[in-house]
Every structure is written in C-alpha cells, then in structure tokens.
Design brief:
alpha/beta
Length: 712
C-alpha cells in the first residue's frame, strides 16, 4: 500500500475534473473506498488501478457524461408565490410607475417578483433566513466561481454518508428518509466547513445552500409545506442537487436584507416598494420551519409531531390581529415614489385560518393617506392543501403614487468637504428636473448633492481616488461593521469618546474642545496611518477616523502623500455618528456608482436626454485644500465650459455651480461664457457664504456672487 493522497492531487494526476469523477463513481464505472465519515481513501495502488481503468475509455465522449441538472428561481413551492402573476405585476408597474430605477421587495419570499426587475437596483428582504440566503444566491453582487459550484454539486450528489448527524438523529423517516437525512446533514455541514475555511465565499455558500433547499423541497414528504408529513411514506425520490442558474452580472449595488420589514423601511428608500405580506393567520415560520432550520444550521432542539424548533422570534404581526396596525405603521414609514401592494380577495372565502387579516376598507384608508391609489386585479388559482375549493380568487395590485415622492429627506455627508453644498441644497435642488433617469455628480466631493437629488441612479465622480474608495468601503462593510471598526480604532488608540463619556471624563469642556487630550494619540494614529502600504478597507476606515479627529475635519495630504492635518477640537460625537449612519443607509438604498476620472475622461456614451449632469468644480478665484498645488487653473476652467457646451449640443441637461466674484476677484472666463450663451443658459443667484469652511478667516467668500447656471 502506497502513501495516502488527497483527492485534489489524485484528480490532478488522473486529469479528471470533479464532475467527471463523480459521474464515474455514481455509475459504478470506478470504485473508491470511503471512511466512516464518507471521505474517500486514496493510495498509490488505487491510483495505478484507476489509471488503467480509465485507459478503457478511448475518448471522453464514450463516458457520456450528462450535463448536470440546473434550477431556476421559480423551481420551488411556496405559499403565495407570485411566479404565475409576474407578467401581470410587471405590466402594471411599467404602465403606472414612471422613472423607476430602484425596487425594494420587502416581503420577498422566493424572490420571484424581484427577479422580474433584475434590470433595476434591488433591495430584497425577508424575515426568514432560508429565503434570505436564497436571495443572496439569486441577487447577490459578489462574484462566484461557477466551476467550483458545479464540482461541489456533483460531489454532494455522489456521496453516500453512513454516519448519523443532526438531521438523521432528529428527522429520519419523517419528511425525508434516513439516508437522505444523513446526506442533507453531511452536505450542510460540509458547506459550512468550506466557508469557515475560506474555500468558498459568502455568495458560493448561499448558492450551495440554495441548491440544497431546492433539492429538499423537491422530494419532501409533504403536501407543499412542513406543518406535517405523510406517515408510512415509501421515500421513492432521492435527494439530488441541481446547479442554481445564478447570474454573475447582477447590479453591483443590490442589497439583501434579513429583518422585519417595518424596521427596514425606516432606514431605506426606493423608487418603488413592492409589498406582499402574509394574508392570513398561517405563519410562514411554521410552514417552513425545517428549511429555516437547515439554512441557519444552529442545530436547535426540536419538538412536537412536526419536529419544530423555537420560532417565537420569527412570528409575523401580519398573521395576527395586529396586522392592520403593523400595515399602517409600515406605509407611514415608507419613503418611495410608488408603493405596490399585492393582496388577494380571500376575506371570507376560505376557512378561518385562510381569511385575510386586512380588509379592503383598511387598505384603501391607509394607502389613500400616502398617495393616489389605483386598483388592478387578475384571477388565479390559490394554493391549498386539497381540502378547500375556492372559486373566483383574485390577486389585486394596489398601486399608490405617493404624495411626498418629489423629494428626499436631506442628509449631510459624513465628510466636511470644503465648499460642500449641503446648506445650499434648498436653493439648488428646485432648479433640477424631476424626470431624471441618471444623475451625474461630476465633481462629487463629499457627495452632498448626488445623495439628495430626486434620482436613485447616480454616478459620483471625483478625481480624488480616496473619496471613491472610502464611500465604497462604507457600502461594502455596511453600517454595523463600519461602526465596529471605527470604535475599535478609537479604543485601540485611546482617543476620546464624548458620545458615551462626555467631556468631563477627559478633563475638557466643550467650548475649548478635546485637542489637549487627543493630541499625542492623534499623532500616533496619523503616524501609523502614513506608514500603511496596502489600501484596503481598514486603510479607508482609519483615514475616516483621522478626518473625524483632525482640524476642521478636512482631507489634506502633503506632496509626499502623507496626511498632515493637526488634531481638531471634536471627536466621533453624536452629530458625526448620525451623519455617517444616515449616509450609509442611503448608500444601501440607491443605485450609486463611484468613479475616479478626470471629468474629461468619464465615459458618457450612453448618456441621453434623461441624464442630468451637475458640475461643482474647484472655483478658479478661490482657494481650498483640493485646489492647492495647481489643482485647478484657467485651462481646466475653459475645458469644463467647453465640455458643458458639448453636453448641451447633445441635448443633455446640466447645472454648474460657481462663483462670479469673490474678495475683489472676478472670474472673467465665466462671465464671458455666460454672456456668449445668454440665450441658451440661465443664471440663478444663490445666497450663502461658507463661514464654516475655512479656518483662516471668518467668511472666505464674503461678498461672493455664488451662482447656479442651467441650460433649461
């Protein structure tokens, strides 16, 4: 007997991919022994035998390896699934809802409705984790290795574990046979081990769990849900995983949530919010407890005839007498242009458990407060367990165009960027069109304008790569992890935390600030930051902490590329926390793209008449940290004005923020351009001075003429 080998080395030596190997194994064309855990036992002797065996196959075609089976999002049974109504829903939305670029499906279930809007930015949510993990598989933005998924699916289909596990010990010969329970438990554990060991990423984990859930659902010994199982079943069907046909080209801004919809809408927004809540008293966590158990894989105790785990935290108010109250609160908190509600007409047609919890009168009363409501309907056959026969069943769509959809709640950038336009937004935004399909923030800076414009599809561009990468870091990490990392840096360096401890804890008072306490600690953080060579997520979080504790909260680097601002008076206080939290919430809501181009190089081939470009360049006759070292000059000013002329010739609308005169200086280039285009462009004079944006004078633009120039 030779030395023991690993599977990967053997397959490489045999020049076999996993799918070919598992096909040969499953069809008894080759034989490989396994240990008690179902793992293959390899040695040199067996390797030589297999080499000889494989020589009998003259060409790969003779093996006749079939293509592995695949599965689509619609191939799963689910109460209230809207797959057969997708055409009705999509056609209604297209006819009634204009300018939709972001769609939130907040009771998503299988995700079939969300899949009908795959060309939009999606926010997909469900309270049940097994649905959530499927959403990550179908809609997630992370790339996955399709070959790796296929190989593992083939491996899972071929293994025949004989050792008991959580599934077989609790569910053998109930919903599934003993053999299938052993296999389900083995596969689920192997997926988790592979993920924890870094062999698969989060999206690949979700795709494999989805494959398992769909395979379980296909052979389950039930009538379609897991409230009960048929006793004495023969278990003729065997577990077989299929490869989910998940896209690797999803919108990179898609978000998948696993939380109470009523809480989610408080911090997210979308052009269209689709609502498909439970209609009756049948709790989904009761009907699908087993799939939830397998997806979570926390291995809890189970009890009762149906072997259910504790589900108290998963109960929905929409299945109780509190449904109307919950619905009213939900609608009140939604921030959207359109709300589309699916709700059928089961009010008195089924048995008591099937009757709708919210009557039409309440639906119309609540939605009518939010906006103008239209009702559409389509007949369909409702799911039932075979005991109830319901005729004339209709699915209705209540389409509500919200009264307050023409504006967003204004939020401020977490960066105190010089010349930021937050306080000017009430004067600027009313001059923007209301039918924008794509907004381009050409010199985005801190992002104040793009984040507040009435358009959820925004390109943020800035020549400073730090901005792009910092914003993308916030979005990638999400609010919870971003705050965790910030607080850890503050703790590690012993910086002040006035939010929790106040000023007295540091021997300081608010009027004088925290600089005396933070000074040396800040310099240590700055020194360590300037030594960093890898610009990963930790780099940008550390940079943000530096900005928070720096003088005037500014971004400034010297010619050697070192951050060089001194310590400031404030820290990560309540105001800074709130700004960052709201900013990240909006990052998650919109279809936002961050670019790092010179404005002349930003790709614009697909811009059309519904694109709106906002330009807020460095001002030629003023000075700011981003305009030091000849960051902006007359030549660039001329090129920008020519660039805007070019947009106008293409029928693309724009707005330009600038200053005509300031502190005795005059922008003659801009004034001449305005005069030459007085019949094409309109000048709006603004009233504001940036008294908080400079630390050398009280008012850096005293007497300045700030203007907004538009080509409408």
């Amino acid at each position: 007997m030779g030395a023991v080998l690993t599977s990967s080395k053997v397959l490489k030596e045999l020049k076999l991919c996993r799918s070919t190997f598992y096909y040969l194994l499953k069809n008894n064309l080759i034989t490989v022994p396994t240990n008690e855990k179902g793992r293959y036992i390899w040695d040199e002797t067996l390797l030589l035998e297999l080499k000889e065996k494989l020589k009998s196959f003259e060409t790969p075609e003779e093996v006749e390896i079939p293509a592995y089976k695949t599965v689509n999002i619609s191939n799963r049974r689910y109460l209230g699934n809207k797959y057969k109504l997708l055409n009705f829903i999509k056609e209604t939305v297209e006819a009634e809802c204009q300018g939709v670029t972001t769609v939130a499906d907040i009771f998503a279930g299988t995700g079939s409705v969300a899949s009908a809007f795959a060309d939009k930015k999606l926010l997909v949510n469900d309270l049940l984790y097994f649905n959530h993990v499927c959403h990550i598989a179908w809609f997630g933005a992370e790339k996955y290795d399709a070959e790796k998924i296929c190989d593992l699916v083939c491996y899972y289909n071929a293994v025949c574990p004989t050792e008991d596990n959580y599934m077989s010990e609790n569910f053998a010969d109930t919903f599934f046979s003993l053999a299938d329970c052993r296999k389900i438990g083995f596969i689920r554990e192997d997926i988790e081990v592979n993920f924890k060991n870094g062999n698969i990423n989060a999206r690949e984990r979700a795709i494999l769990i989805t494959s398992l859930i769909y395979a379980m659902d296909k052979i389950a010994n039930t009538c379609g849900h897991y409230d009960a199982y048929f006793k004495g079943a023969s278990f003729d069907k065997k577990l077989e995983l299929c490869v989910p046909l998940a896209s690797n080209e999803n919108n990179p801004n898609n978000q998948c949530f696993n939380e109470d919809a009523n809480l989610l809408v408080k911090r997210t927004e979308a052009d269209l919010v689709y609502i498909d809540p439970p209609y009756n008293s049948r709790q989904y966590c009761d009907a699908y407890h087993l799939l939830e158990n397998v997806a979570r894989w926390e291995k809890p105790p189970v009890s009762g005839v149906a072997l259910k785990m504790d589900r108290k935290a998963l109960k929905s108010d929409y299945c109780t007498a509190s449904a109307v109250k919950a619905f009213e609160e939900l609608i009140s908190d939604i921030r959207a242009r359109y709300i589309v509600l699916s709700y059928n007409n089961m009010a008195e047609k089924g048995n008591e458990r099937s009757n709708a919890k919210i009557c039409d009168e309440d639906i119309m009363r609540i939605l009518s407060r939010k906006g103008k409501v239209k009702l559409f309907s389509a007949q369909y056959r409702a799911f039932n367990a075979g005991k109830t026969h319901i005729k004339g069943n209709e699915e209705r769509l209540f389409v509500c165009e919200c009264y307050d959809s023409g504006q967003k709640t204004l939020i401020q950038s977490p960066l105190n960027y010089t010349g930021g336009k937050f306080k000017l937004l009430p004067q600027i935004l009313p001059h923007f069109p209301t039918d924008i399909s794509r907004f381009v923030d050409l010199f985005c800076g801190g992002g104040n304008v793009g984040m507040n414009v009435f358009c959820n599809k925004v390109i943020f561009n800035d020549k400073n790569p730090l901005l792009k990468n910092m914003f993308e870091t916030f979005r990638t990490l999400g609010k919870e992890k971003t705050f965790e990392k910030i607080e850890k840096i503050i703790s590690d360096y012993g910086l002040s935390d006035s939010y929790r401890n106040g000023y007295d804890a540091y021997g300081c008072v608010s009027a004088n600030g925290l600089a005396p306490y933070n000074g040396e600690k800040f310099l240590k953080l700055r020194e360590d930051f300037n030594r960093l060579t890898e610009r990963d997520g930790d780099y940008y979080i550390k940079l943000y902490v530096l900005i928070v504790f720096a003088f005037n909260n500014q971004i400034r680097f010297n010619k050697k590329g070192a951050y060089n601002l001194p310590v400031g008076k404030r820290d990560f206080n309540k105001n800074m926390r709130e700004k960052l939290a709201l900013f990240i919430d909006r990052l998650e809501s919109g279809d936002y793209r961050f670019e790092n181009f010179d404005f002349r190089s930003l790709p614009n081939e697909d811009w059309d008449e519904k694109t709106f470009v906002y330009a807020d360049p460095p001002y030629l006759i003023t000075c700011a940290t981003y305009n030091e070292q000849d960051g902006w000059n007359e030549e660039l000013e001329k090129e920008l004005l020519s660039y805007l002329d070019g947009l106008h010739e293409r029928g693309i609308r724009f707005a330009l923020s600038n200053v005509l005169r300031s502190k005795g200086k005059e922008n003659t280039l801009l004034l001449n351009w305005i005069a030459e285009n007085r019949h094409r462009y309109r000048v709006i004079y603004l009233n504001y001075s940036y008294s908080n944006s400079n630390y050398h004078t009280k008012d850096r633009t005293s007497g300045a003429e700030e203007v907004l120039i538009v080509n409408d």
